[in-house]
Design goal:
The longest helix is centred in the last third of the chain and has 16 residues. A ten-stranded mixed sheet has the order 3-6-9-12-15-18-21-24-26-27. It has a nine-stranded parallel sheet with strand order 1-4-7-10-13-16-19-22-25, with no helix packed on it. With about 260 residues, the chain is an alpha/beta fold. The chain folds into two domains: about 150 residues, UDP N-Acetylglucosamine Acyltransferase, domain 1 (3 Solenoid), CATH 2.160.10.10; about 55 residues, Udp N-acetylglucosamine O-acyltransferase, C-terminal domain (Udp N-acetylglucosamine O-acyltransferase, Domain 2), CATH 1.20.1180. A hairpin with a 4-residue loop joins strand 26 and strand 27. It has four helices and 27 strands.
Length: about 260
């Protein structure tokens, strides 16, 4: 005998766009805004503060915009924003922000695989991939096109640069500068993310400029500060090298070792 279960709890205060599909046993709270053409699976909780853009797909069992796992949180107003086209797979947990920043932000066209966790006050850029069970502690910044391997954990306040590839089962406790691969234990620089860069249209000249900069940083025998000074002495610096310098100079936790 077949039965048609619905038993959803969808607040009439929630703002829900057109062509939105919602699976059985899903809960959507009052202070929620959902765009057009969104797909929400079964047994999902969309809590207060969720701001979900057009074309997002949220799969079975995900918890979106739930309150932070932070003892300093005392119920203050905050949000969780998900950009257009992002996919949130099964049983992922995405927490809204705290008073520190007021929001957690996930960009466009990201893929958050099953059991991923994005904690309070994180900023995740566009086109980011987090493989199964990858987790971000609070206040983490992940820039565009970064890829985090499965079962990787990122310490609070760490920063991960553009086009970075982090291997599976890594513990990230230092900042990872852009365009590189990182792996091993303790985590360290493993080389350029050449495959990823080529896929995204970086030509040979750009890759060589990046490679030269990281040779000075990691293979010249200089400390990081002196390496940056040496790079700045070059007569012409590409945009990519400027990005490396900017990232290192703004790092508060220090960058991973070579």
């Amino acid at each position: 005998m077949s039965q048609n279960f619905v038993l959803n709890s969808i607040s009439n205060k929630a703002k829900i766009g057109s062509n939105v599909t919602i699976g059985d046993f899903t809960v959507i709270k009052d202070d929620v805004e959902i765009g057009n053409n969104v797909e929400i699976g079964t047994s999902v909780i969309i809590a207060d503060g969720a701001r979900i853009a057009d074309g997002v797909k949220i799969h079975h069992g995900a918890a979106v915009s739930t309150i932070p796992q932070d003892l300093k949180f005392i119920g203050e107003y905050s949000t969780l924003e998900i950009g257009e086209g992002t996919v949130v797979r099964e049983f992922s947990m995405l927490n809204r922000g705290t008073a520190a920043s007021g929001k957690t932000t996930i960009g466009k066209n990201c893929l958050l695989m099953a059991y991923t966790h994005v904690a309070h006050d994180c900023i995740v850029g566009n086109n980011v991939i987090m493989a199964n069970c990858a987790t971000l502690s609070g206040h983490v910044f992940v820039d565009d096109w970064a890829v985090l391997g499965g079962i990787t954990g990122v310490h609070q306040f760490c920063k991960i640069g553009k086009h970075v590839m982090v291997s599976a089962q890594c513990k990230v406790v230092k900042d990872i500068p852009p365009y590189i691969t990182a792996g091993n234990s303790p985590l360290r620089f493993e080389g350029l993310n050449i495959i990823g860069l080529k896929r995204r249209g970086f030509d040979t000249n750009k890759i060589q400029n990046i490679e030269k900069a990281y040779h000075i940083i990691y293979s010249s025998g200089r400390n990081v500060s002196d390496a940056v000074k040496k790079i700045k002495q070059e007569p012409q610096l590409s945009d990519e090298v400027y990005e490396i310098i900017r990232f290192i100079e703004q790092s508060e936790r220090g960058i991973i070792k070579g």
